[in-house]
Amino acid sequence: MLHIVACIKQVPDTKIIKMNPKTNTMDRSSAPAILNPYDSHAVEEAVRLRSRYGGVVSVLTMGPPPAVKAIKKCIEIGADEGYMITDRAFAGADTLATSYALTKALQKIADIRPIDLIVCGKMTIDGDTGQVGPGIARRLDMPPLTSVNKVAEINREEGYAIVHRKLEDGYEVIRSTLPCLLSVEKDINEVPYSSLPNMLRAARYQPIIWSVADLGEIDKTQLGLKGSPTIVSSVWAPQKPQGGKLLEGSYDEQIRQLLDVVLTRKELFEAQAGAGGGAS
Ligand SMILES: Cc1cc2nc3c(=O)[nH]c(=O)nc-3n(C[C@H](O)[C@H](O)[C@H](O)COP(=O)(O)OP(=O)(O)OC[C@H]3O[C@@H](n4cnc5c(N)ncnc54)[C@H](O)[C@@H]3O)c2cc1C
Predict the structure, then answer these.
(1) Which of 68, 199, 207, 220 allows an S-S link to 82, with CB 3.0 to 4.6 Å?
(2) Which atom of ligand 1 is nearest to 63's Cα?
(3) What is the pLDDT of residues 109-143, one digit of tens each?
(4) Distance from the CA of 234 to the center of ligand 1, in angstroms?
Protein backbone atom coordinates (compact mmCIF):
# COMPACT_ATOMS: atom_id res chain seq x y z
CA MET A 1 0.00 0.00 0.00
CA LEU A 2 1.41 3.40 -1.05
CA HIS A 3 2.56 5.36 2.00
CA ILE A 4 3.18 9.08 1.50
CA VAL A 5 4.52 11.29 4.27
CA ALA A 6 4.20 15.06 4.00
CA CYS A 7 6.54 17.14 6.16
CA ILE A 8 4.77 20.26 7.37
CA LYS A 9 5.67 23.27 9.49
CA GLN A 10 3.62 25.77 11.46
CA VAL A 11 4.76 29.32 10.66
CA PRO A 12 3.73 32.85 11.64
CA ASP A 13 1.60 34.54 9.01
CA THR A 14 4.28 36.73 7.44
CA LYS A 15 1.65 38.84 5.64
CA ILE A 16 0.67 40.22 9.05
CA ILE A 17 3.78 39.84 11.20
CA LYS A 18 5.49 42.92 12.64
CA MET A 19 9.23 43.35 12.98
CA ASN A 20 10.76 44.45 16.28
CA PRO A 21 12.49 47.69 15.21
CA LYS A 22 15.11 47.37 17.97
CA THR A 23 16.23 43.79 17.38
CA ASN A 24 15.16 43.54 13.72
CA THR A 25 13.67 40.12 14.49
CA MET A 26 10.13 38.88 13.89
CA ASP A 27 7.68 39.56 16.69
CA ARG A 28 6.05 36.11 16.46
CA SER A 29 3.32 37.10 18.92
CA SER A 30 2.07 39.75 16.47
CA ALA A 31 0.75 37.25 13.92
CA PRO A 32 -1.35 34.09 14.03
CA ALA A 33 0.37 30.76 13.42
CA ILE A 34 -0.70 29.04 10.21
CA LEU A 35 0.21 25.95 8.22
CA ASN A 36 3.08 26.92 5.89
CA PRO A 37 1.19 27.63 2.61
CA TYR A 38 3.61 25.53 0.50
CA ASP A 39 3.00 22.60 2.86
CA SER A 40 -0.77 22.74 2.36
CA HIS A 41 -0.05 22.08 -1.34
CA ALA A 42 2.27 19.20 -0.35
CA VAL A 43 -0.51 17.61 1.73
CA GLU A 44 -3.12 18.23 -0.97
CA GLU A 45 -0.87 16.52 -3.56
CA ALA A 46 -0.39 13.54 -1.24
CA VAL A 47 -4.18 13.31 -0.79
CA ARG A 48 -4.71 13.48 -4.59
CA LEU A 49 -2.14 10.70 -5.12
CA ARG A 50 -3.97 8.57 -2.54
CA SER A 51 -7.18 9.13 -4.53
CA ARG A 52 -5.40 7.93 -7.70
CA TYR A 53 -3.45 4.99 -6.30
CA GLY A 54 -4.89 4.20 -2.86
CA GLY A 55 -2.73 4.16 0.25
CA VAL A 56 -2.12 6.19 3.38
CA VAL A 57 -1.12 9.83 3.87
CA SER A 58 0.78 10.71 7.03
CA VAL A 59 2.02 14.15 8.04
CA LEU A 60 5.02 14.95 10.23
CA THR A 61 6.04 18.12 11.99
CA MET A 62 8.74 19.20 14.40
CA GLY A 63 7.61 22.09 16.51
CA PRO A 64 6.34 23.31 19.87
CA PRO A 65 3.09 21.78 21.27
CA PRO A 66 0.77 24.40 19.63
CA ALA A 67 1.91 23.03 16.23
CA VAL A 68 -0.77 20.33 16.76
CA LYS A 69 -3.07 22.90 15.16
CA ALA A 70 -1.11 22.65 11.89
CA ILE A 71 -1.50 18.85 11.95
CA LYS A 72 -5.25 19.25 12.46
CA LYS A 73 -5.32 21.54 9.40
CA CYS A 74 -3.70 18.70 7.41
CA ILE A 75 -6.34 16.26 8.66
CA GLU A 76 -8.91 18.78 7.37
CA ILE A 77 -7.20 18.67 3.96
CA GLY A 78 -7.52 14.88 4.05
CA ALA A 79 -4.42 13.35 5.70
CA ASP A 80 -4.94 10.07 7.55
CA GLU A 81 -2.31 10.25 10.32
CA GLY A 82 -0.33 12.97 12.06
CA TYR A 83 3.01 12.68 13.84
CA MET A 84 4.68 15.41 15.86
CA ILE A 85 8.11 15.49 17.43
CA THR A 86 8.41 18.02 20.19
CA ASP A 87 11.07 18.41 22.87
CA ARG A 88 13.12 21.21 24.40
CA ALA A 89 16.19 19.46 22.94
CA PHE A 90 14.99 20.46 19.42
CA ALA A 91 14.85 24.20 20.25
CA GLY A 92 17.14 26.51 18.31
CA ALA A 93 17.61 23.99 15.48
CA ASP A 94 18.97 25.29 12.17
CA THR A 95 18.14 23.49 8.93
CA LEU A 96 20.86 20.85 9.49
CA ALA A 97 19.57 19.91 12.96
CA THR A 98 15.95 20.12 11.76
CA SER A 99 16.61 17.67 8.93
CA TYR A 100 18.42 15.33 11.35
CA ALA A 101 15.53 15.25 13.85
CA LEU A 102 12.93 14.84 11.08
CA THR A 103 14.98 12.01 9.53
CA LYS A 104 15.00 10.16 12.86
CA ALA A 105 11.21 10.54 13.08
CA LEU A 106 10.78 9.40 9.46
CA GLN A 107 12.83 6.28 10.18
CA LYS A 108 10.54 5.51 13.11
CA ILE A 109 7.44 6.08 10.96
CA ALA A 110 8.95 3.79 8.30
CA ASP A 111 9.31 1.05 10.95
CA ILE A 112 5.54 1.26 11.47
CA ARG A 113 4.75 1.44 7.74
CA PRO A 114 7.42 1.60 4.99
CA ILE A 115 7.51 4.99 3.21
CA ASP A 116 7.32 5.23 -0.60
CA LEU A 117 7.25 8.99 -1.02
CA ILE A 118 8.08 12.04 1.11
CA VAL A 119 6.54 15.36 0.08
CA CYS A 120 7.77 18.72 1.35
CA GLY A 121 6.89 22.29 0.51
CA LYS A 122 9.33 24.18 -1.71
CA MET A 123 10.22 26.35 1.30
CA THR A 124 8.72 27.93 4.39
CA ILE A 125 7.51 31.53 4.47
CA ASP A 126 9.48 32.30 7.65
CA GLY A 127 12.82 30.48 7.33
CA ASP A 128 12.68 30.59 3.54
CA THR A 129 15.75 28.42 2.93
CA GLY A 130 14.30 25.42 1.05
CA GLN A 131 17.06 23.30 2.61
CA VAL A 132 15.15 20.94 4.88
CA GLY A 133 13.67 18.71 2.13
CA PRO A 134 16.96 18.05 0.31
CA GLY A 135 18.64 17.66 3.74
CA ILE A 136 16.25 14.83 4.65
CA ALA A 137 16.69 13.18 1.23
CA ARG A 138 20.49 13.25 1.61
CA ARG A 139 20.31 11.71 5.07
CA LEU A 140 17.91 8.98 3.91
CA ASP A 141 19.95 8.45 0.72
CA MET A 142 16.96 9.00 -1.57
CA PRO A 143 16.69 11.21 -4.68
CA PRO A 144 15.55 14.80 -3.94
CA LEU A 145 13.28 16.16 -6.67
CA THR A 146 12.89 19.90 -6.15
CA SER A 147 10.54 22.49 -7.77
CA VAL A 148 8.01 19.80 -8.68
CA ASN A 149 4.81 21.18 -10.19
CA LYS A 150 3.25 17.96 -11.49
CA VAL A 151 3.32 14.31 -10.48
CA ALA A 152 2.68 12.49 -13.73
CA GLU A 153 2.88 8.92 -12.42
CA ILE A 154 3.71 6.84 -9.38
CA ASN A 155 4.33 3.15 -9.98
CA ARG A 156 4.91 1.46 -6.66
CA GLU A 157 5.10 -2.07 -8.10
CA GLU A 158 7.85 -1.13 -10.56
CA GLY A 159 9.36 1.35 -8.09
CA TYR A 160 9.41 4.63 -10.00
CA ALA A 161 7.88 8.12 -10.06
CA ILE A 162 7.63 10.52 -13.01
CA VAL A 163 7.40 14.22 -12.16
CA HIS A 164 7.66 17.61 -13.87
CA ARG A 165 10.22 20.06 -12.46
CA LYS A 166 9.57 23.73 -13.03
CA LEU A 167 12.32 25.61 -14.87
CA GLU A 168 12.57 29.32 -15.68
CA ASP A 169 11.53 28.75 -19.28
CA GLY A 170 9.45 25.56 -19.09
CA TYR A 171 9.71 22.24 -17.29
CA GLU A 172 11.68 19.02 -17.37
CA VAL A 173 10.33 15.51 -16.95
CA ILE A 174 12.21 13.35 -14.48
CA ARG A 175 11.88 9.64 -13.80
CA SER A 176 13.15 8.66 -10.37
CA THR A 177 13.33 5.50 -8.34
CA LEU A 178 11.08 5.16 -5.29
CA PRO A 179 11.32 6.03 -2.49
CA CYS A 180 12.11 9.64 -3.29
CA LEU A 181 11.47 13.09 -1.86
CA LEU A 182 9.56 15.83 -3.66
CA SER A 183 9.65 19.56 -2.83
CA VAL A 184 6.54 21.02 -4.42
CA GLU A 185 5.67 24.37 -5.96
CA LYS A 186 2.44 26.17 -5.09
CA ASP A 187 1.09 25.80 -8.62
CA ILE A 188 1.09 21.99 -8.38
CA ASN A 189 -2.56 22.11 -7.27
CA GLU A 190 -5.27 24.20 -5.68
CA VAL A 191 -6.23 23.40 -2.13
CA PRO A 192 -10.04 23.26 -2.01
CA TYR A 193 -12.21 24.13 1.00
CA SER A 194 -12.20 21.28 3.50
CA SER A 195 -15.16 18.91 3.60
CA LEU A 196 -17.37 18.82 6.69
CA PRO A 197 -16.46 15.18 7.57
CA ASN A 198 -12.74 16.07 7.41
CA MET A 199 -13.32 19.13 9.60
CA LEU A 200 -15.19 17.04 12.16
CA ARG A 201 -12.46 14.40 12.13
CA ALA A 202 -9.78 17.09 12.54
CA ALA A 203 -11.55 18.61 15.53
CA ARG A 204 -11.40 15.27 17.38
CA TYR A 205 -8.02 14.12 16.03
CA GLN A 206 -5.02 13.73 18.33
CA PRO A 207 -1.65 13.16 16.61
CA ILE A 208 1.00 10.73 17.73
CA ILE A 209 3.51 12.77 19.73
CA TRP A 210 7.13 11.72 20.28
CA SER A 211 9.91 13.26 22.34
CA VAL A 212 13.63 12.69 21.82
CA ALA A 213 13.45 9.65 24.12
CA ASP A 214 10.91 8.01 21.77
CA LEU A 215 13.16 8.28 18.71
CA GLY A 216 15.48 5.44 19.74
CA GLU A 217 19.18 5.67 19.08
CA ILE A 218 19.93 9.32 18.46
CA ASP A 219 23.00 11.56 18.57
CA LYS A 220 21.92 14.37 20.89
CA THR A 221 24.86 16.54 19.80
CA GLN A 222 23.16 16.86 16.39
CA LEU A 223 19.93 18.25 17.84
CA GLY A 224 18.74 21.79 18.57
CA LEU A 225 21.14 24.67 19.13
CA LYS A 226 24.00 22.26 19.95
CA GLY A 227 23.70 20.60 16.57
CA SER A 228 23.33 23.87 14.64
CA PRO A 229 26.54 25.18 13.05
CA THR A 230 24.71 28.12 11.41
CA ILE A 231 25.62 31.43 13.01
CA VAL A 232 23.35 34.42 12.43
CA SER A 233 25.93 37.20 12.67
CA SER A 234 23.51 40.08 12.15
CA VAL A 235 19.95 40.70 11.08
CA TRP A 236 18.65 43.91 9.52
CA ALA A 237 15.56 45.17 7.80
CA PRO A 238 16.21 46.36 4.21
CA GLN A 239 16.12 50.15 3.84
CA LYS A 240 13.06 51.54 2.12
CA PRO A 241 14.15 52.99 -1.24
CA GLN A 242 14.32 56.78 -1.08
CA GLY A 243 12.59 59.10 -3.54
CA GLY A 244 10.20 57.76 -6.15
CA LYS A 245 6.63 58.87 -6.69
CA LEU A 246 3.41 57.03 -6.07
CA LEU A 247 1.13 57.31 -9.09
CA GLU A 248 -2.41 58.29 -8.21
CA GLY A 249 -5.76 58.70 -9.93
CA SER A 250 -7.49 56.58 -12.56
CA TYR A 251 -5.65 54.06 -14.73
CA ASP A 252 -5.52 56.56 -17.66
CA GLU A 253 -4.24 59.34 -15.40
CA GLN A 254 -1.52 57.06 -14.06
CA ILE A 255 -0.42 56.16 -17.61
CA ARG A 256 -0.29 59.90 -18.45
CA GLN A 257 1.84 60.61 -15.36
CA LEU A 258 4.15 57.76 -16.26
CA LEU A 259 4.54 59.06 -19.85
CA ASP A 260 5.31 62.54 -18.48
CA VAL A 261 8.14 61.09 -16.41
CA VAL A 262 9.50 59.09 -19.35
CA LEU A 263 9.30 62.05 -21.77
CA THR A 264 10.92 64.46 -19.30
CA ARG A 265 13.75 61.95 -18.77
CA LYS A 266 14.10 61.56 -22.57
CA GLU A 267 14.28 65.34 -23.09
CA LEU A 268 16.88 65.66 -20.35
CA PHE A 269 18.89 62.83 -21.87
CA GLU A 270 18.76 64.38 -25.37
CA ALA A 271 19.70 67.80 -24.01
CA GLN A 272 22.69 66.27 -22.23
CA ALA A 273 23.70 64.36 -25.36
CA GLY A 274 23.35 67.54 -27.47
CA ALA A 275 25.56 69.43 -25.03
CA GLY A 276 28.21 66.75 -25.52
CA GLY A 277 27.37 64.98 -22.28
CA GLY A 278 26.77 61.60 -23.97
CA ALA A 279 25.03 58.67 -22.40
CA SER A 280 25.92 57.54 -18.94
C1 LIG B 1 20.98 29.41 14.34
C2 LIG B 1 19.52 29.19 14.10
C3 LIG B 1 18.66 29.02 15.18
C4 LIG B 1 17.30 28.83 14.97
N5 LIG B 1 16.47 28.70 16.04
C6 LIG B 1 15.14 28.49 15.84
C7 LIG B 1 14.24 28.35 16.95
O8 LIG B 1 14.64 28.38 18.10
N9 LIG B 1 12.91 28.16 16.67
C10 LIG B 1 12.45 28.12 15.38
O11 LIG B 1 11.22 27.94 15.17
N12 LIG B 1 13.29 28.25 14.34
C13 LIG B 1 14.61 28.44 14.54
N14 LIG B 1 15.43 28.59 13.48
C15 LIG B 1 14.88 28.45 12.16
C16 LIG B 1 14.98 26.98 11.75
O17 LIG B 1 16.25 26.72 11.27
C18 LIG B 1 14.02 26.72 10.65
O19 LIG B 1 12.74 27.05 11.09
C20 LIG B 1 13.98 25.24 10.26
O21 LIG B 1 15.26 24.68 10.18
C22 LIG B 1 13.34 25.05 8.93
O23 LIG B 1 14.02 25.78 7.95
P24 LIG B 1 13.19 26.64 6.94
O25 LIG B 1 12.12 27.31 7.72
O26 LIG B 1 14.12 27.46 6.14
O27 LIG B 1 12.52 25.49 6.06
P28 LIG B 1 12.67 25.18 4.52
O29 LIG B 1 13.92 24.41 4.29
O30 LIG B 1 12.42 26.40 3.70
O31 LIG B 1 11.42 24.19 4.41
C32 LIG B 1 11.22 23.35 3.29
C33 LIG B 1 10.21 22.31 3.67
O34 LIG B 1 10.77 21.44 4.67
C35 LIG B 1 9.72 21.01 5.55
N36 LIG B 1 10.01 21.50 6.91
C37 LIG B 1 10.73 22.57 7.28
N38 LIG B 1 10.73 22.69 8.63
C39 LIG B 1 9.98 21.68 9.11
C40 LIG B 1 9.59 21.26 10.42
N41 LIG B 1 9.98 21.92 11.51
N42 LIG B 1 8.82 20.15 10.54
C43 LIG B 1 8.42 19.45 9.45
N44 LIG B 1 8.75 19.81 8.18
C45 LIG B 1 9.52 20.90 8.02
C46 LIG B 1 8.43 21.60 5.00
O47 LIG B 1 7.86 20.72 4.08
C48 LIG B 1 8.92 22.85 4.28
O49 LIG B 1 8.04 23.32 3.30
C50 LIG B 1 16.79 28.80 13.65
C51 LIG B 1 17.65 28.97 12.57
C52 LIG B 1 19.00 29.19 12.79
C53 LIG B 1 19.88 29.40 11.59
Answers:
(1) 207
(2) 41
(3) 999 999 999 999 999 999 889 999 999 999 999 99
(4) 18
